[in-house]
Amino acid sequence: MSEFVRKVSRKISKLSPEQLERVIDSVNGENKTLSSALESLSTGLVLVDGDFCLIRANKAAERLVPFKKRLSGDKAGEVPLWELVDDEYISGFLHKCASGSKTNVSEEFSLSAGDKTRFITIKIVPLVEKQANEEGSAFDTTIAGSVITVEDITERTQQEVMLHRMESLAGLTNLAASVAHEIKNPLGAISIHIQLLQKAVRKSREGDGLLPKEKFMEDYLAVINEEIDNLNKIVVDFLFAVRPLQVNMSLSDPDVLIEKIAGFFTPEFESKGVGVVLRLCKASPRLLIDGKLFRELVINLAQNALAAIEERFAAVPADSGCGSGETEETGTFLIESCVKDGKYILNIADNGAGMDDRTASKIFEPYYTTKATGTGLGLTMVYKIVKEFKGDIDVKSVKNHGTVFTISLPVPQKNTMLLEDKGCGQRLLGDADNERTII
After folding, report:
1. What is the pTM for the complete model shown?
2. Span 336-352, average pLDDT
């Protein structure tokens, strides 16, 4: 049809009114068909010119993206599109693409509405326009603006989360085996003391018929009650370890969360003479995480680090001087982040007591602990949270030198290479030029 219109436009001065009316009717018919097709799409579609001002948009785009005003309004095409968007992340993304003339890029966003979260993908590609040259023998192509597509990926994201949770259920086999082992000891103690009570009662009946001394009975019953309490604690801890996490995933800046979390625990660290250093990305990506669980993860590792530092330096006298030219080592806690190979890398390090290889290999197992009052579930919960975020966690430790936990989380954006930091993980406790915050 466009070729027909092009040919007719050359001869428009020679057309009769009737012929011209038929051409206009044909163009209107085609335009109506294309408009109907555009509005029937479930994918949002927005066309903008070279200045990123609105040319046209369908209803799906208005439904998926939070706009400050209706795109069908008369004034919508007079301002850049990002000024019409009522979401700072989407607006910033569009502004960045327009300012840098970036095309063929896409990014994922999360939008909260009450207690529900919706996920969308926005993709920008060039709007290519063909124009016939003066001779009419060929076409010249020019970039007339951009085509922005908006796709709702909420269902796909939720299905991926559910699949991930189903896969993680396989780990319950090992956990159940650990619980079975933990339950054996209290059950054995209860059984033995009940048998002793039964034997004592039977012996008394066969003799003088008097019950054993009160203290004798109370001792056995006290042991039984204590072991029952232990069983109850094991069951409660087991339910805590296996229950599904209440996760509210959204795209969040992890470094912004870390800065807030560090502000919470830093006073405690400083009061105990432990320095806190944050060495974070210059421009961290947004990750699909739960902010509350991420906070629990960081605080758990921070408290473990503080305990390890106190264990190592507790025996060092406060007034112990060092020789000339030497400096006394003090406790240091470091959080370092960067992006590498499409993943967000978080190193959480301390120069505390450290662990041997055997301990380091077992710390994520349920109920394994080296602390007298520990439950052995803190790092198990850290492991669960990392896996819920589809990430991995690794630990490296040297006895009496320190420990480094390395967490890697997937970056959902497709243009992650722009954020990569080649220096990731090369320095842990030394100075760095790319520190965003030092506390």
Report:
1. 0.59
2. 93
